[in-house]
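Minutes, project check-in
Item: structure for the 296-residue chain
Input as provided by the requester:
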Amino acid sequence: MKTTTHTVNFDMDRTPYASRNKTWHRTRMIVNKALQITVGLVLGLVLGVSTVWALSANEIMEKVDARDDGDRSIAEMEMVLIDKSGNRRVRKIRSFGRDQGEDTQSVMLFMEPADVRDTGFLTFDYDAPEADDDQWLYLPALRKVKRIATGDKTGSFMGSDFSYSDMTKPNLEDYKFQLLKESEVRGHPIWVIGRTPVSQDVIEETGYTKSILYVRKDNFVVVRAIHFLDGGKKRKYLDVIQLKQIDGIWVATETHMTTKRGKTTLHKTIIRQHNMRFNQELEDSLFTTRRLEKGL
């Protein structure tokens, strides 16, 4: 029997298959490219967020230090002093502040009550870490301007829980910082930063052996702090109760400072700021010791 051999022309069948295969590869390339772009965008967002969250303690504190706190300011202040029995004394103050290059100058003039009226406090807060900040206090009863010596800056400012040292910005170079954890204060995400003085000189000037700072992540404002006092079991607790934006500047409009020994409250100070205004016309003569003697 004769066997008939059938030859299949694969070239004829391959043409439509190759066309389909080529189209499939092109579609796959387009899909892969789209996925790559999408993944890239997602990773960009994630990495962008993680960059903010991955700041070191030093970087966080540098942003705290560099935060815009306004210029040429005028405000009315109320200082409430509360003793351990709950007795209150209220003092009314007018405050003025301005920038001089990288330095800051401020003056506080006491208006009420009568026993502190015309008391004035002038501060030159220098940006250079090697420069000692200058502070002067005018007491009308003595009719004399007194310069606050470095060794006296741990003392109470006008009977409050704030020291003279608290009235100036700390120099970052004087401390070591450590990121302890992340948490929340009044619903706002914060960093908890440990701050330790680098030398005994810093401890003697500030009175603090260490501090724990609570820094808001959205604006780099220290909204709480715990200060451990040198030579005892006392601690001071700073708490910013109200924080508002005024002309784009974050301002602590109500701040509490409480001194405790263990769980016992020894004394408390409340500072409220009202009618805060920035970019005001301020005379140079306002920031002088002679003006302290004149008062308002």
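Outcome recorded: The chain has four helices and 13 strands.
No further action items on this chain.
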